[in-house]
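1st attempt posting a full record on here, be nice pls
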Amino acid sequence: MTSTAKSESQGAKASPVPVGVIGCGRMGRLHARVYGQMPSVRLVGAFDAVHDAAAAVARDFACSAFDSLEELLDRCSAVSIAVPTSMHLAVAAVCLARRIPCLIEKPLAASVAECREILDLSGRHKTAVQAGHIERFNPAIVAMQSLGLKPRFIDVVRVSPMTFRSTDVGVVLDVMIHDIDIVLRLAGAVPLRVEAVGVAVAGGAEDICNARLTFPDGCVATMTASRLALKTERKLRVFGGDAYVSLDYQTRLAQYVTRRAIEKTIALGREMLTSGQVRDPGQIDYTKLVQTSTLPVDPVEPLRAELESFIDTIRAGGTPVVSAEDGLRAVETAQRIVQAVNSNPAEAAAF
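the predicted structure (as tokens):
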């Protein structure tokens, strides 16, 4: 049974959870769409400072548009917060004071101090907060983790054209934050050392960044993020002692090559040379000889899996899969990267 089918089966046995969406931009609309499809949820409605935006969500997803945040919260048992990052703390504070569990879109907040305040409010009011790191629920990431690979080197590229969203933060908090969370999860630790270079092209904050993180066990991760690229590329490569995994976030394809497969390929190549089958090593195509395997991937939509996990946590009263602490650690590392960018003389170089 897939995770979606399992959640639908569980949802049918309990009353739907009344849920609201705060913030009706692109992500808020996506949350509303998915909530409206979930049997375990009753989408109550939406609130946005721009009432027309909330009215559009209400019209498109068969719910209500509320004139105030308080009116929406009076009707809800849980909310998704998808307002601009600079408003996360202010909105979360109102919700948590009413003991309403929150899923807060990434990044958890605009600064480490604000993240800690959200964490404190969550603990004080004994109310769950889930950080909205959607890539944790990407089925390719879930499939890769089943290998139990101990990473020695991680390489991530996440570049795309300008979307004209999230302009209140730089590319590290806007784009790279996805990969920071995944890298911290894979490494199982916070980095000992952070090095980075970045360039601000369109405004005051960095639009392009490359970071290198070194972890206590010697694992190294490099991350490249840009919101000014001419194409979209979102790829993760993880190298361990026993295997190498290549993952495409967009296609949700995860392929891996084992150490044994590589050893067999090298032996085959040597045999081809010593037997005279080929005379020039350049004639041997490694990519056609090496045996690659594709991981089985659940076709579930990542946002659906994320929201189902949030609702399951509320019902079970447990800790979210992506906790507020996880969100804090990601922002702490992001802040270290931005500080490294700002202290690097190359940051001032012309683009």
